[in-house]
Specification:
Its EC number is 3.1.3.-. This protein is an alpha/beta fold and 222 residues long. The chain is built from nine helices and six strands; from the N terminus they run βαααααβαβαβαββα. It has a six-stranded parallel sheet with strand order 3-2-1-4-5-6, with helices on both faces. α6 links the parallel β2 and β3.
Length: 222
């Protein structure tokens, strides 16, 4: 029985790669640096931002970038250009909750990069029962131990959870932890053949399809 649906943020709950690419290049331009090519951004997408930026812009002043990035990110969010959760995805979360399942987030983002999603007036405020980010987990994806804190806090077993994500690293982390994994391919950034099939329980083209898959997994013996 699936009791908890754990969800990645970027390109899973909301589509963010294209907006993030634009945002990061805007910050680089502010710093007087050349733009990164899209293929470089795509090849490092899913990595922790400040760990990926030296590849995206070699020689970058990371402290200055981090400072400018947060200011620009807050503006993008306020303008509705980043982290917009589509109504159909919100409805899917409600459907999962109506079936008695907890909804949680687990992301590679830093805490300050998800803080706005935890505000009392955010659509996730009454829907998400827990958020785990880079500072609240000892390990990062694809290490399966990234789920340790979540499982310890909730008392759930891996068999009672399913993780929904968009990257091969998400799949490896979930599979290594003994957890079912649903690959969300909606962004088009990755294809199913990019994943190690050993770790993929199911794949969906759009996030709302997760509701049906979770029901099917709950009816599957073992």
């Amino acid at each position: 029985m699936i009791k908890a649906v754990i969800i990645d943020v970027d390109d899973t709950l909301c589509m963010t790669e294209a907006s993030s690419f634009e945002l990061e290049n805007e910050v680089l331009a502010t710093m007087g640096r050349p733009p990164m090519p899209r293929e470089v951004h795509l090849s490092t997408w899913g990595e922790v931002l400040l760990e990926a930026m030296p590849q995206r812009s070699p020689g970058l002043d990371l402290d200055r970038f981090a400072e400018l990035f947060m200011t620009s990110m807050q503006r993008y969010v306020a303008e509705g250009r980043l982290d917009v959760i589509p109504p159909e995805n919100v409805a899917a979360l409600d459907d999962l909750i109506l079936t008695g399942r907890a909804v949680m987030l687990l992301t590679s983002r830093a805490g300050r990069e998800v803080r706005h999603m935890l505000e009392p007036d955010h659509v996730l405020a009454t829907r998400v029962s827990g958020v785990w980010h880079r500072e609240s987990t000892r390990c990062g994806k694809p290490d399966p131990r990234v789920f340790d804190e979540l499982l310890a806090h909730t008392g759930l077993s891996p068999a009672q959870c399913v993780y929904v994500g968009d990257s091969p690293g998400d799949a490896i982390a979930a599979g290594g932890a003994g957890m079912a994994f649903i690959a969300c391919l909606q962004s088009g950034v990755r294809r199913l053949e990019d994943f190690d099939g050993r770790y993929v329980t199911a794949a969906v083209e759009t996030f709302p399809e997760v509701v049906t898959v979770v029901e099917e997994l709950s009816r599957t013996p073992g």
